[in-house]
């Protein structure tokens, strides 16, 4: 077992050691069934056939060229009136046969129109073939990929849900969510249409060479000699891009987890005014991603330039050598020259164009690495495994034998140190001890969330590692102190306890847990939605639902981890009674800080430093005068209260995903559930996107210049190419040679220019695009943090959904600028130049060819339109699944404890059905458009060459012009197609941008700006609530505050007491201006709160809430968070830590103040977190202090000291205290007793006790407040 922790802890650094690319390409298809394989094979064959179409067309093209050249020569000869054509041979009029220099006769009588008609039929035939195969090629591959991705998603999620809890300690939830969405999409790109296009291009490559070799092997070899250079560039580029993409992803994942953390704890950020600081922290992490992105752009630019340069140099070489073969050795006819040259060229080009596919494959493989690693990783503790015994009879004796343990994410801190103890069946055993002594850890080991490092745990003498996990966990009912509820109805939450229970069982369980009455008071009763994380319920309500959930399991073993701490007196008494009933005949383990609740336990075990130091009954331990004795005496000093029942409470959260204020995260209830329609997002105007890129205009300009030059390269090529064809009909050989040499030199010049302009375009747009992405992410994040807190209550703005939007939308917007502008400029200059050339040479032919352009262009546009329609749906559909996965991953402990992994896996799989269906529909439509786009060009050739033949014969047009016009316009057509093939990105970008701008344009209901509202110097801290009425915006049907009327003078302490759900925490949130009251006013120093500057107001308030949220940074930085307006010296931090009695504990840690606290502070015990939070509030030096059950999470020792610290901190400050435990608030100047959102009585402790009304009852009996 020794290895175990290392295994884990490497979870941080292991990534850097391995190479990024380890997944073989064919391993991407591990999830294909025979049916998928069949679809892919057939699709692949179609792609092969499709690839052969273009080289086939070349054969036709070559024959056609020969026909034209022969016709031209004949026309030149017959221009002499003395010659005529007899029996297909040119003869003089006097009958003798005309011979040229080498005694050869000249052929004549070419019927050019008949020939052309035949060629046109060939073209049409090829075109129809292409139409059919290219449809199948795309449709089959895309739908096969959709099926595999569906399977990967399911397998991955199922595997993640099987991982042991230690694995989740090492992988942040945000990162896992990103993987589920982004990385799997990358795999999808690598195994879908890209593969079929790759096969098609490679097949063109092979057939192109074959056509070349058949035509003329010498020329082919010469051209081949240079092609490795092209291949090399393509290969290197793909490698580099994959590498960089991996790096960029890693860098962004860091920023993503910052965003996730901040948005999850938005209330804390707002309360401490940390928005700007967080934006900076986020931005810092973006810089790294940006730099990798720029590098990627530059490298692509260099390689592209290199590629084009080589290609043009090849042209020069091939034409020069080819023309030698035609003229001097007569080995080739002009047609074969064209056929060989284009065959090889087409082959090389297609090899080059196959490289973007390689890029997709490479990034797919990089993404698959992490996904498949997880899928292949065998969990240390597999909750789905069928292995292990199930005992027939469970008595319930639990024993720990020398158990040593540390958390996998912190191997250097020993939590349990050879702990041995026995928990007898049917007895109630209580664990007590200071916080951080390992009490909760023992419970987690018993649930088998972790395996012990050394030693073993036994149940009835069986090592629990030999028992079946699901079965073991089904014996255990656990009630945690901060229970996690799932975002569904109350009844469903209770059903999670045990599958297949009837409604009567549920009602019975809620009655036992004392939850029945409050549930029946809710408008929808058992069908009330509890909101995300149970945010709609007050602490006490959540707790009782959780107890009902535990009881319905009818467990043999009950684990109560401070189960009653979040309750007020009245509910606590009753729940305690319910728990006492539940404990009968079960083995029970109770963890508590309030010793009164465990006095009657059968055995009490005292913990210290991860050891069980003493055990016995209450009285035994008091005589021992050990740990327990000190704890009891400490607590009793504070207990000069009439009743024991009053000191309830330690409350806090193990891994709170929600924010600090307990009742706060309200989500919508059933009444207006998600009926309101999604508002339509209009795509954003490009001009506005560009505005954000304004400061990069020099880059944009340079890039555009580069793009313009690149665009004009193709038309120039059309001119040069047709010029070469023209030279073959020149009779004078020297003239012919001179022309050819001139043309070759021009080709070389074009090559060099091309290199620089490509590089320029790649680099400049890469740079401006990455800068834009970063700026948008930053601005978007800023805009999110500017929203009022109520905005985050809307489930559409859950932290998961917002982080995904930051990650994907911003990078999509980049698609609308940057490289996109480059493409557009490139295409426009290309089309412009081509048209000018074509029309200046022959407007008639140009018009015919132009008729086909709309079709070529349209097919591209059509493709784009279809894809964007789907882009919207896809995103929506995946978001629903994303919410399931984020909820599941965030609450993994609770799910594991309830053995509900499989339920979540099933829900997730149901959510995947919709996107899967739309992906299959997409496959067909995409296939049809692709097929149409592919065959149009063949039809265009058929028509235009046929008409060209007519013009040549009837209008004496030189055939060179025919080739020039057709190649110029077809080239511009492909450019059009290219521009339109980019349109999917473009449209996606516009929609993403629109969503982004909607966020930026939203005016928060409560302005956070530094200038709005008034500030004043002598802030006193006088507070008044005047007839405040309030309902949470997402739950308008429940009145939380109903005419709250209470005031505090500067320096006084006001204590709110009352049952849970009566609006105590809500009043605090109104004061912080997280919300504004619906009616009535909150006055601060006599000024209405909504006229006060928000940052100014919050700067005067320090808050310590019941479950403090800490950030994933060091202890010192967490304390500094108290005042974000300035940088703070270490002395101040230490000083605050001393005041909060934190200093001594920090000094015992290996890294002292630099110790990281872990995500959400998970590395610290509850008491430690609480003291950090208090230090954070003290550093702020606030005028108003809000304590929302600030000490409830502490054990007695720390509580005494912290209470002292708080009393110290309260001096001279206005203070509002919320407490369930009445002992802590006797000294308050005003005690306000609340019920149903209004104050029913107020006064000092003495006055209220004398009144003998509600407060007196609360203190003496814990009776309900009417």
UniProtKB/TrEMBL annotation:
Cell location: Cell membrane
A Gene Ontology term for the protein's cellular component: plasma membrane
Database matches in SMART domains: AAA
Superkingdom to which the source organism belongs: Eukaryota
Example of a GO MF term: ATP hydrolysis activity
Topology versus the membrane: Multi-pass membrane protein
PANTHER family: ATP-DEPENDENT PERMEASE MDL1, MITOCHONDRIAL, BILE SALT EXPORT PUMP
Protein name (database record): ATP-binding cassette, sub-family B (MDR/TAP), member 11a
Protein source organism: Oncorhynchus mykiss (Rainbow trout)
């Amino acid at each position: 077992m020794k290895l175990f922790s290392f295994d884990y802890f490497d979870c941080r650094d292991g990534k850097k050691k391995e190479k990024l690319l380890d997944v073989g390409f064919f391993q991407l298809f591990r999830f294909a069934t025979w049916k998928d394989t069949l679809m892919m094979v057939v699709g692949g064959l179609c792609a092969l056939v499709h690839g052969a179409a273009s080289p086939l067309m070349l054969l036709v093209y070559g024959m056609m060229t020969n026909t034209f050249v022969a016709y031209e020569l004949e026309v030149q000869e017959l221009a002499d009136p003395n010659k005529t054509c007899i029996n297909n041979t040119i003869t003089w009029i006097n009958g003798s046969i005309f011979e040229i220099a080498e005694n050869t006769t000249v052929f004549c009588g070419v019927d050019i129109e008949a020939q052309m008609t035949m060629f046109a039929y060939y073209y049409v035939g090829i075109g129809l073939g292409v139409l059919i195969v290219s449809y199948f090629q795309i449709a089959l591959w895309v739908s096969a990929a959709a099926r595999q991705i569906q399977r990967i998603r399911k397998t991955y999620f199922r595997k993640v849900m099987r991982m042991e809890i230690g694995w989740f300690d090492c992988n942040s939830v945000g990162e896992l969510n990103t993987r589920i969405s982004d990385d799997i999409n990358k795999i999808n790109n690598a195994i879908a249409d890209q593969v079929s296009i790759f096969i098609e291009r490679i097949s063109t490559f092979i057939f192109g060479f074959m056509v070349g070799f058949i035509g003329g092997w010498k020329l082919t070899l010469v051209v081949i000699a240079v092609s490795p250079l092209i291949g090399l560039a393509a290969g290197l580029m793909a490698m580099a891009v994959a590498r960089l993409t991996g790096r960029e992803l890693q860098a962004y994942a860091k920023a993503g987890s910052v965003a996730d953390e901040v948005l999850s704890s938005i209330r804390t950020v707002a309360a401490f005014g940390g928005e700007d600081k967080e934006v900076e922290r986020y931005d810092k992490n973006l810089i790294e991603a940006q730099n990798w992105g720029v590098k990627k752009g530059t490298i692509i630019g260099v390689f592209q330039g290199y590629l084009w340069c080589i290609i043009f140099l090849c042209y020069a070489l091939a034409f020069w050598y080819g023309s030698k073969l035609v003229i001097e050795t007569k080995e080739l006819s002009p047609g074969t020259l064209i056929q060989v040259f284009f065959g090889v060229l087409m082959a090389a080009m297609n090899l080059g164009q196959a490289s973007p596919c390689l890029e997709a494959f490479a990034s797919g493989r990089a993404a698959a690495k992490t996904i498949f690693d997880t899928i292949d990783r065998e969990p240390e503790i597999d909750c789905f495994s069928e292995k292990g015994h199930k005992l027939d009879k469970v008595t319930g004796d639990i024993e720990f034998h020398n158990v040593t343990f540390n958390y996998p994410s912190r191997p250097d801190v020993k939590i349990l140190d050879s702990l041995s103890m026995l928990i007898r069946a049917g007895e109630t055993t209580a664990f007590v001890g200071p916080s951080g002594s390992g009490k909760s850890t023992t419970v987690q080991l018993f649930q088998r969330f972790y395996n012990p490092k050394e030693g073993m745990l036994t149940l009835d003498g069986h090592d629990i590692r030999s028992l079946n996990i699901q079965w073991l966990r089904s014996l255990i009912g656990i009630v945690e102190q901060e229970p996690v509820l799932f975002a569904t109805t109350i009844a469903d939450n209770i059903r999670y306890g045990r599958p297949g229970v009837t409604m009567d069982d549920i009602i019975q369980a809620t009655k036992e847990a004392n939850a029945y009455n409050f549930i029946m008071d809710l408008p929808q009763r058992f069908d009330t939605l509890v909101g995300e994380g149970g945010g709609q319920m007050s602490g006490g309500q959540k707790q009782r639902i959780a107890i009902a959930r535990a009881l319905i399991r009818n467990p043999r073993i009950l684990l109560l981890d401070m189960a009653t701490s979040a309750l007020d007196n009245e509910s606590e008494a009753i729940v305690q009674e319910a728990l006492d009933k539940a404990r009968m005949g079960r083995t029970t383990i109770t963890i508590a800080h309030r010793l009164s609740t465990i006095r009657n336990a059968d055995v009490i075990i005292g913990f210290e430093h991860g050891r069980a130091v003493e055990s016995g009954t209450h009285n035994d331990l008091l005589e021992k005068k050990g740990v327990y004795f000190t704890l009891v005496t400490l607590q009793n000093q504070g207990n000069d209260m009439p009743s024991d029942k009053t000191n309830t409470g330690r409350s806090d959260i193990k891994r709170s995903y929600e924010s600090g204020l307990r009742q706060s995260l309200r989500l919508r209830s059933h009444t207006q559930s998600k009926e309101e329609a999604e508002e339509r997002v209009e795509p954003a105007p490009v001009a506005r996107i560009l505005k954000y890129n304004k400061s990069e205009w020099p880059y944009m300009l340079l890039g555009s210049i580069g793009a313009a030059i690149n665009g004009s390269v193709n038309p120039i090529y059309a001119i040069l190419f047709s010029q070469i064809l023209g030279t073959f009909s020149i009779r004078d050989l020297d003239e012919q040679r001179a022309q050819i040499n001139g043309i070759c030199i021009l080709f070389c010049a074009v090559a060099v220019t091309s290199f620089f302009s490509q590089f320029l375009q790649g680099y400049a747009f890469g740079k401006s695009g990455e800068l834009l992405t970063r700026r948008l992410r930053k601005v978007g994040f800023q805009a999110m943090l500017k929203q009022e807190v109520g905005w985050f209550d809307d489930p559409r703005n859950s932290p998961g959904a917002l982080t995904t939007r930051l990650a994907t939308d911003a990078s999509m917007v980049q698609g609308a600028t940057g490289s996109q502008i480059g493409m557009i400029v490139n295409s426009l200059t290309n089309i412009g130049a081509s048209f000018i050339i074509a029309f200046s040479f022959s407007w008639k032919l140009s018009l015919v060819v132009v008729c086909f352009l709309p079709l070529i262009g349209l097919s591209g546009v059509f493709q784009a339109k279809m894809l964007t329609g789907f882009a919207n749906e896809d995103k929506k559909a995946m978001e629903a699944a994303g919410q399931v996965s984020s909820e599941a991953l965030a609450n993994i402990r609770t799910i594991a404890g309830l053995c509900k992994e499989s339920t979540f896996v099933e829900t997730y799989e149901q959510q995947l059905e919709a996107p899967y269906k739309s992906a299959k529909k997409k496959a067909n439509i995409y296939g049809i458009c692709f097929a149409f786009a592919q065959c149009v060009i063949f039809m265009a050739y058929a028509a235009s060459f046929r008409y060209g033949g007519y013009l040549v014969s009837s209008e004496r047009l030189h055939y060179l012009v025919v080739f020039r016009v057709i190649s110029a316009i077809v080239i511009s057509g492909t450019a059009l197609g290219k521009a339109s093939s980019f349109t999917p990105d473009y449209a996606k970008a516009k929609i993403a941008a629109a969503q982004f701008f909607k966020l930026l344009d939203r005016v928060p209901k409560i302005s956070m700006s530094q200038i709005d509202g008034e500030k004043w110097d002598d802030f006193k801290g006088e507070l008044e609530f005047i007839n405040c009425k309030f309902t949470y915006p997402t739950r308008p049907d429940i009145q939380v505050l109903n005419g709250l009327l209470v005031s505090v003078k500067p320096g006084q302490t006001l204590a709110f007491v009352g049952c849970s759900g009566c609006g105590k925490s809500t009043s605090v949130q109104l004061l912080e201006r997280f919300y504004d009251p619906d009616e009535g006013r909150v006055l601060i120093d006599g000024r209405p709160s909504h006229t006060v500057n928000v940052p100014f107001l919050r700067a005067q308030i320090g808050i310590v809430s019941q479950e403090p949220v800490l950030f994933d940074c060091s202890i010192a930085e967490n304390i500094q968070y108290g005042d974000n307006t300035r940088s703070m010296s270490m002395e101040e931090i230490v000083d605050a830590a001393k005041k909060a009695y934190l200093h001594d504990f920090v000094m015992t840690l290996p890294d002292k103040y630099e110790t990281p606290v872990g995500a959400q502070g998970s590395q610290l015990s509850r008491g430690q977190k609480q003291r950090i939070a208090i230090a954070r509030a003290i550093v702020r030096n606030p005028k108003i202090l809000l304590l929302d059950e600030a000490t409830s999470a502490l054990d007695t020792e720390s509580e005494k000291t912290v209470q002292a610290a708080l009393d110290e901190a309260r001096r001279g400050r206005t203070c509002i205290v919320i407490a369930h435990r009445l002992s802590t608030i006797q000294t308050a100047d005003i005690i306000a007793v609340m019920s149903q959102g209004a104050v029913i009585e107020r006064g000092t402790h003495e006055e209220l006790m004398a009144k003998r009304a509600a407060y007196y009852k609360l203190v003496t009996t814990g009776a309900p407040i009417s």
